[in-house]
């Protein structure tokens, strides 16, 4: 198939970017979306032009590095699918495809489709952990954990930190990301001891990083490639208020 | 330069205890006077950085990713082994040790493997304490699954995302230390060179991938936790950015490279679909618990899987290896698949695939059970291939997955350069010639959480580390060389892209130094690789500048090292005139096509020393002593 | 310990303020509606209710309620404006073509519908409570000498401009409530897999019921069911 791409090009954080159009021909339906971009980039390099910068690494949907808005949807049209796992069989000959970076004040653009997501790391550094030093642990089976709790915890822990939730949110809120970490840890006995300080400090840190507030649109849930439920946001709200009183 | 493994005295069960009893320690007040550089933030790197910072050392950690959480450890699906014997099925530290040595085809160092099996239990405890949501039974206790190469269930898992959960656990521990100011994190920084002063590793040169700035960082010890070099094959299950650069530059500075030819080919990957293919996707080995592998009995079979009756199917693993069947170790399962395909009985486009069939399991357990166990893997398969594996069997083919070889280290995980420690997949140490499933996660975390905190103290306590700063000649030289290297890559102005060289190199390596190797192919590779390298330095093109984010420059810099390293790998494969684990030399096989080791001549670790540009590297041999495990022909029949 | 001011200014605390005050206001709407519906029982009930409301416990109830409502209203509006401004800043300058999947017109326009409601409430109070707007309807007195609320309402709703404004305001309120009620539950964290479906669908239903209730009065006047 032949495609017309409109890709956001921006050379640096302070540059004014713009959409530029490119044609890509003879695209196979078995290609992944990123492989299609690889083909374009190879052509650009051969012509001496600078290729489109985009973040990617594992290409199997787990590292959370890739992320781009494809035709208005973070990670593209398929639900529960990262951009690297999206394949060209989801498109057809002659399609126009718009490709843009994540947009949020807290995620400044580095170049083209690459954004700086270090705000996520800083929020985790403010409490997204269990304070246990190496060597402190007792036997792994010492505290039974109900299968239900372990499953809920895993549902939340599946977050890959890609930032699609922020990109999808009309307020650029990081609520789903932060709630997933709080939900992951608070479901387990190991994480309960510091539940209150964690909720308080992560939420305040999320605000300080300049993310917006949640207004319950549920766009994050729809865009999340791991299908993390916005129920965790309700839980975060609860945990936060528990930590206040 | 020391080439001595320093294995502690005493019976194998007591070696690690003896080491700890005799080692020197650094008192808490003195720890904060030491600075440690950790390169790479996968399981080994994050675990080490966090644990060392907890002890009080000052740590600087480096990753070329935008966040330490992205390292490729995250992609491990199946699980992590530990000798907990929670299942009461006969497991023990000894059994895990034995399985690992045997699985590695008797080419691993016994003492290291025993220590690995010993600390495996603490890893699970540590991870549970960190909040890793391992799978649980209804009673609330940890669940286990079985994995290739073992007859006990000792694999702990978190759905199909075990690597992710373990890495997130280590990342969180690391994040806590960053928040506390004990770790300085440098994201988007790639190691360009190792700084060696007076024979000791004292720092690294890095390039900031966003600004292009080349800087030197000084420390009292350097830990390389930079993963494997599977991407030398271009197509592998490794992430796109995995590379050999850090390890290779350390090699050029004097660290010996151990067993570079040992690469693991994973039997269950999604087959290649076209020339544009950028990487291969692994389907967890755990699928082999319930899937049955087969090919048609007749060559050139044209019917679809469903139309082929039971009697015309060859379940070749069950037939050839009845006691392990579909759970035969990776190297054996991979070669068996290659044999079937070479025999013209492969399925799918190009005949490069075999079926992994769940029909029986679905009939026996019901679709919902299969969905519970492998749901996410099935979804992933369908996304990539467009086929529904609940209805038609998966098609799989072997692919490069892991490299057992790596920088040579002694019992303390120190390389031949004092002060340079190597952890995780980047070292050669524990898996011999073949790694068992669910052991990579175990090794990465063992090295990071439970070995380096001890052995590093012993190194520091010996003293002799002088004060230096970045103004000395060694530092300035290393930084200058890195700057020149970047400049030279940018100034070739040829016609070919970095990736096109990488792809071509990968093809040479896969054809001549892949799943099966022979003298002829290997010698051809030794001619083709230098020629390709020559062309690379004449005809490469890298657009843009070195002063900002330039991804083609990053690729070019890594491919340049692959083009040198691949030659070392082939050289090692030539020299190892036997078949062992992941290294299968066609000249050395039993009449029924099994790998044939040669213990008299090759029971050693090949450790290669760099001898300068244009000179042949020198081979050093570390003889392997097997005092506890009897050398035997590895049989899974 | 985090300083109180930081907690007060946090997004989630402000969302709680919004949710709690919102529930108070919805409760008020329900009470207000039950009063309005007395119109169907005739002038006597309606006017008696008006007097009772003002004189209950020597008039203290109505003042406590008024102060409470005013406080809730101010906090609600303030939180809404503060959060909307913040969110605008968070999204930055956006040329983005991001399309919406689960959000609704209602959910995306809460601050605008809210501001419209604010203006309408002021006008509405001026009309029916303070007697500053449409003064011609405010001065009626019934046969018992009570303020003739019934007649004020019926006469007002014979004015098509008033009916139109009122109906429009109610539709905007409906839009606001469509998102607001379920949203408040989510914000308060009253949430459980078993009842989520109920909450997400019950919110709009309660909102619509309230609006239809309010609209029933002017429509009954227009169609001559109430004279």
Defining traits:
heterotrimer; B: 637 residues; alpha+beta; Flavocytochrome C3, Chain A, domain 1; Methane Monooxygenase Hydroxylase, Chain G, domain 1; C: 227 residues; mainly alpha; 9 helices; 72% helix
Describe, in plain words, how this protein is organized in 3D.
The complex is a heterotrimer of chains A (245), B (637) and C (227). With 245 residues, chain A is an alpha+beta fold. Chain A folds into 2 domains: 3-110, Ubiquitin-like (UB roll) (Roll), CATH 3.10.20; 117-244, Orthogonal Bundle (Fumarate Reductase Iron-sulfur Protein, Chain B, domain 2). Chain A is 36% helix and 11% strand. Chain A has 9 helices and 7 strands. Chain A has helices spanning 33-46, 118-125, 147-157, 164-168, 175-186, 189-192, 195-208, 219-223, 231-244, and strands spanning 3-9, 18-24, 69-70, 73-74, 96-100, 109-111, 114-115. A 5-stranded mixed sheet of chain A has the order 2-1-5-3-4. In chain A, strands 6-7 form a two-stranded antiparallel sheet. The radius of gyration of chain A is 20 Å and the shape is elongated. In chain A, 64% of the residues are buried. Chain B is α+β, with helices and mostly antiparallel strands and 637 residues long. Chain B has helices at residues 15-22, 28-31, 43-55, 93-103, 110-130, 162-179, 245-252, 316-320, 330-342, 359-365, 367-385, 440-461, 473-490, 498-513, 519-539, 551-575, 599-602, and strands spanning 35-39, 58-62, 80-81, 155-156, 183-186, 189-197, 200-208, 214-218, 221-224, 257-258, 263-269, 292-296, 313-314, 354-357, 394-403, 406-407, 420-422, 604-609, 618-623. In chain B, the strands form 5 sheets. In chain B, strands 5-2-1-9-17 form a 5-stranded parallel sheet. A 5-stranded antiparallel sheet of chain B has the order 11-15-14-12-13. In chain B, a hairpin with an 8-residue loop joins β18 (604-609) and β19. In chain B, α3 packs parallel to α6 (162-179), α14 runs parallel beside α16 (551-575) and α15 packs antiparallel against α16. The longest helix of chain B has 25 residues, at 551-575. The mean pLDDT of chain B is 95. Chain C has 227 residues and is an all-alpha fold. The model of chain C has no long low-confidence stretch (mean pLDDT 92). At the A-B interface, α1, α2 and α3 of A face α3, α5, α6, α11 and α12 of B.
């Amino acid at each position: 198939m032949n495609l017309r791409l409109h890709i956001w090009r921006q050379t640096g954080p302070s540059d004014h970017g713009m959409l530029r159009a490119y044609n890509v021909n003879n695209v196979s339906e078995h290609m992944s979306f990123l492989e299609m971009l690889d083909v374009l980039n190879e052509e650009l390099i051969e012509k001496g032009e600078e290729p489109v910068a985009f973040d990617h690494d594992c290409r199997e949907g787990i590292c959370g590095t890739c992320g781009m808005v494809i035709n208005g949807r973070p990670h593209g049209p398929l639900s529960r699918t990262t951009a690297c796992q999206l394949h060209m069989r989801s498109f057809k000959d002659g399609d126009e495809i718009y490709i843009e970076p994540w947009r949020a004040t807290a995620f400044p653009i580095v170049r083209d489709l690459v954004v700086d997501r270090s705000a996520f790391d800083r929020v985790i550094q403010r409490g997204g952990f269990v304070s246990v030093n190496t060597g402190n642990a007792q036997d792994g089976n010492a505290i039974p954990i109900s299968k239900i709790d372990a499953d809920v915890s895993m549902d939340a822990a599946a977050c890959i930190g890609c930032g699609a939730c922020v990109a999808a949110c009309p307020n650029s809120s990081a609520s789903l990301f932060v709630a997933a970490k709080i939900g992951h840890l608070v479901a387990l006995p190991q994480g309960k001891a510091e539940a209150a300080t964690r909720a308080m400090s992560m939420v305040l840190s999320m605000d300080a990083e300049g993310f917006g507030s949640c207004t319950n649109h549920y766009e994050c849930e729809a865009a999340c490639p791991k299908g993390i439920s916005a129920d965790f946001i309700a839980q975060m709200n609860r945990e936060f208020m528990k930590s206040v009183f | 330069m020391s080439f001595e493994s320093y294995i502690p005295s005493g019976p194998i069960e007591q070696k690690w205890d003896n080491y700890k009893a005799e080692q020197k320690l650094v008192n808490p007040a003195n720890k904060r006077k030491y600075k440690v550089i950790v390169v790479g933030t996968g399981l080994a790197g994050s675990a080490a950085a966090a644990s060392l910072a907890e002890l009080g050392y000052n740590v600087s950690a480096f990753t070329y990713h935008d966040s330490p959480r992205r390292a490729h450890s995250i992609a491990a699906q199946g699980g992590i082994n530990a000798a907990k014997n929670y299942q009461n099925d006969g497991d023990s530290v000894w059994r895990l040790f034995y399985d690992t040595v045997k699985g590695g085809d008797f080419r691993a160092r016994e003492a290291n493997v025993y220590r690995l099996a010993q600390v495996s239990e603490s890893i699970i405890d540590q991870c549970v304490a960190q909040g890793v949501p391992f799978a649980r039974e209804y009673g609330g206790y940890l669940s286990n699954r079985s994995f290739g190469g073992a007859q006990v269930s000792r694999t702990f898992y978190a759905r199909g995302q075990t690597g992710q959960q373990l890495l997130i656990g280590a990342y969180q521990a690391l994040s806590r230390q960053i928040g506390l100011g004990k770790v300085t994190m440098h994201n988007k920084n790639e190691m360009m060179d190792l700084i060696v002063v007076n024979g000791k590793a004292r720092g690294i040169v890095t390039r900031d991938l966003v600004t292009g700035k080349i800087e030197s960082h000084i420390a009292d010890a350097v830990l390389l936790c930079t993963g494997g070099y599977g991407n030398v094959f271009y197509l592998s299950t490794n992430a796109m950015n995995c590379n050999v650069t850090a390890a290779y530059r350390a090699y050029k500075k004097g660290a010996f490279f151990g067993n570079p030819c040992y690469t693991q080919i994973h039997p269950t990957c999604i087959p290649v679909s076209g020339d544009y293919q950028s990487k291969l996707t692994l389907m967890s080995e755990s699928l082999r618990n319930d899937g049955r592998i087969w090919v048609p009995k007749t060559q050139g079979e044209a019917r679809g899987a469903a139309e082929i009756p039971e009697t015309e199917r060859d379940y070749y693993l069950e037939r050839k290896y009845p006691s392990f069947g579909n759970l035969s170790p990776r190297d054996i399962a991979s070669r068996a698949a290659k044999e079937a395909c070479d025999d013209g009985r492969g399925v799918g486009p190009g005949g490069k695939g075999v079926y992994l069939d769940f029909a029986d399991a679905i009939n026996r357990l019901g679709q919902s059970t299969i969905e519970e166990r492998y749901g996410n893997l099935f979804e992933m398969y369908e996304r990539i291939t467009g086929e529904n594996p609940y209805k038609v069997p998966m098609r799989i083919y072997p692919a490069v997955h892991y490299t057992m070889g790596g920088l040579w280290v002694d019992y303390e995980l120190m390389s031949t350069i004092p002060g340079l420690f190597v952890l995780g997949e980047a070292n050669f140490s524990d898996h011999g010639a073949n790694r068992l499933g669910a052991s990579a996660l175990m090794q990465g975390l063992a090295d990071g959480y439970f070995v380096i905190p001890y052995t590093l103290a012993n190194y520091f306590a010996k003293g002799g580390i002088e004060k230096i700063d970045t103004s000395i000649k060694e530092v300035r030289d290393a930084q200058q060389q890195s700057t020149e290297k970047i400049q030279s890559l940018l100034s070739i102005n040829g016609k070919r892209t970095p990736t096109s060289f990488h792809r071509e190199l990968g093809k040479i390596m896969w054809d001549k130094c892949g799943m099966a190797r022979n003298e002829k192919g290997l010698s051809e590779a030794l001619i083709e690789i230098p020629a390709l390298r020559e062309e690379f330095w004449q005809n490469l093109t890298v657009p843009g500048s070195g002063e900002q984010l330039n991804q083609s420059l990053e690729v070019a810099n890594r491919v340049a090292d692959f083009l040198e390293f691949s030659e070392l790998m082939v050289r090692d494969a030539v020299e190892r005139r036997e078949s062992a684990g992941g290294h299968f030399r066609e000249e050395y096989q039993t009449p029924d096509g099994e790998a044939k080791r040669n213990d008299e001549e090759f029971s050693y670790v090949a450790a290669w020393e760099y001898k300068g540009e244009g000179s042949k590297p020198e081979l050093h041999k570390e003889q392997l002593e097997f005092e506890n495990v009897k050398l035997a022909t590895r049989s899974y029949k | 310990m985090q300083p109180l001011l930081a907690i007060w200014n946090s997004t989630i605390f402000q969302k709680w303020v919004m949710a709690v005050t919102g529930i108070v206001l919805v409760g008020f709407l329900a009470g207000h509606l039950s009063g309005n519906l007395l119109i169907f029982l005739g002038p006597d009930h309606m006017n008696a209710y008006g007097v009772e409301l003002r004189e209950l416990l020597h008039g203290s109830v109505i003042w406590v309620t008024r102060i409470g409502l005013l406080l809730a209203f101010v906090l609600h509006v303030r939180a809404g404006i503060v959060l909307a401004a913040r969110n605008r800043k968070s999204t930055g300058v956006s040329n983005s073509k991001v399309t919406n999947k689960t959000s609704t017109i209602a959910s995306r326009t809460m601050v605008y519908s809210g501001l419209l409601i604010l203006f309408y409430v002021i006008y509405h109070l001026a009309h029916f409570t303070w007697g500053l707007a449409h003064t011609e309807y405010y001065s009626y007195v019934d046969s018992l000498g009570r303020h003739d609320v019934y007649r004020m309402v019926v006469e007002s709703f014979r004015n098509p401009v008033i009916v139109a404004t009122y109906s429009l305001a109610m539709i905007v309120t409906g839009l606001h409530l469509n998102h607001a009620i379920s949203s408040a539950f989510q914000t308060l964290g009253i949430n459980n897999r078993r009842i989520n479906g109920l909450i997400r669908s019950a919110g709009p239903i309660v909102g619509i019921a309230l609006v239809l209730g309010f609209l029933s009065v002017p429509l009954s006047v227009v169609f001559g069911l109430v004279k």
